[in-house]
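Run log // design_07
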């Protein structure tokens, strides 16, 4: 499925370090038809869900989260890397392959009980999205699904996220 889209995802070996096969989405974004096909296909998967907000993850998640929020007619919440959000935040630390990372969200970004979709470009180990799920749960969000353009199935992210919400991905590798 979606071979046309897959043909516009570039594999870059050993980026950002040896052993990682980086999925470069820039060729897909640069092509107007492919970009539209991606957003329309994700929209089709999500349009029947009752959603109040999309929470999207810094930075490539915004490329898909923002147009989807516009199309679905819901709000957009920015989950950002540490130190970028100006008002009061909650933060969550998570493990990367080497070292740790911190993501943050504004404390008033979500009201208790609001239905939220989390959107990022790619699911690998699930660590990043798990941290986002934790943050949004602390705010009282009802997480409806975790949504990705790309899922690297062998890395087991879907399993890591199942305690929070089902995973929806357009392209699986
Ligand atoms: P993870 O927390 O392991 O699920 O990693 C997901 C995050 O890291 C996403 O925000 C991706 O943008 C990025 N990422 C991880 N692995 C790759 C990869 N092979 N190609 C492109 N981006 C990746």
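design_07 sequence
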């Amino acid at each position: 499925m979606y071979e046309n889209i897959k043909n516009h995802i570039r594999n870059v070996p050993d980026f950002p370090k040896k052993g990682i096969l980086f999925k470069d989405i820039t060729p897909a974004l640069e092509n107007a038809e492919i970009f539209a096909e991606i957003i329309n296909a994700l929209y089709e998967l999500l349009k029947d869900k009752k959603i109040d907000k999309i929470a999207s993850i810094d930075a490539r998640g915004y490329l898909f989260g923002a147009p989807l929020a516009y199309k679905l007619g819901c709000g957009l919440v920015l989950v950002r890397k540490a130190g970028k959000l100006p008002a009061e935040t909650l933060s969550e630390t998570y493990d990367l392959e080497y070292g740790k990372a911190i993501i943050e969200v504004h404390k008033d970004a979500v009201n208790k009980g609001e239905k939220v979709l989390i959107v990022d470009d790619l699911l690998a180990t699930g660590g990043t999205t798990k941290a986002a799920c934790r943050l949004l749960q602390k705010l009282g969000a009802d997480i409806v699904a975790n949504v990705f353009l790309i899922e690297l199935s062998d890395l087991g992210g879907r399993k890591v996220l199942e305690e929070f919400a089902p995973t929806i991905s357009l392209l699986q590798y």
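The longest strand covers residues 142-151.
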